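In response to the reviewer comment on reproducibility (Comment 2.3), we provide here a single inverse folding case reported in full, input and output, so that an independent group could reproduce the run without further information from us. The C-alpha cells appear first.
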C-alpha cells in the first residue's frame, strides 16, 4: 500500500497489511524474458480486484528503449480493451421513449489494465504499475 508522508508530502510504500476502505494499493507486474531470444507480442494484463477501484491516471505508460507503450483498459471483464476514455452504449428511458446512447466509461468501472509489448529483448524485463483504492 502507499500513503503520503505528511511531512515530506512524498509517497511512502507501506509494509503489507490488511487494506482498509479508502486505502490505496500499489500493484506491480513484471514481465521477465530470461531466454536468449526476444519475445514478441507480449501482453501484460493486470486484473483489478472487485473489492477495489482503479485510481484514474495511475497506470503509467511503459517505456522500453525508444518505444512508449500506453496502457489499454477493459470494463467488461477483460474481453475487450481500448485506450482511455472508453465508451459504452446504454439504454435509457426519456419521456416514455426507449433511447440508446453512447456514454464515457468511468475509470472506476475498469476491470483490467493491459500493456501490449511488441518486443521484450532477451534477458530483460519490463515492470508496470497501477493503483487501486479499496472500496
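Designed residues, in position order:
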Amino acid at each position: 500500500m502507499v500513503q503520503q508522508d505528511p511531512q515530506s508530502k512524498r509517497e511512502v510504500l507501506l509494509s503489507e497489511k490488511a487494506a482498509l476502505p479508502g486505502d490505496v494499493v500499489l500493484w506491480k507486474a513484471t514481465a521477465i524474458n530470461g531466454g536468449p531470444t526476444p519475445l514478441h507480442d507480449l501482453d501484460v494484463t493486470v486484473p483489478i480486484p472487485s473489492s477495489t477501484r482503479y485510481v484514474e491516471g495511475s497506470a503509467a505508460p511503459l517505456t522500453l528503449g525508444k518505444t512508449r507503450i500506453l496502457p489499454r483498459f477493459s470494463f467488461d471483464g477483460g474481453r475487450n480493451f481500448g485506450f482511455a476514455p472508453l465508451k459504452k452504449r446504454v439504454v435509457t428511458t426519456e419521456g416514455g421513449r426507449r433511447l440508446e446512447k453512447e456514454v464515457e466509461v468511468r475509470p472506476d468501472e475498469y476491470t483490467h489494465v493491459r500493456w501490449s509489448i511488441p518486443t521484450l529483448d532477451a534477458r530483460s524485463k519490463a515492470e508496470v504499475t497501477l493503483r487501486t483504492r479499496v472500496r
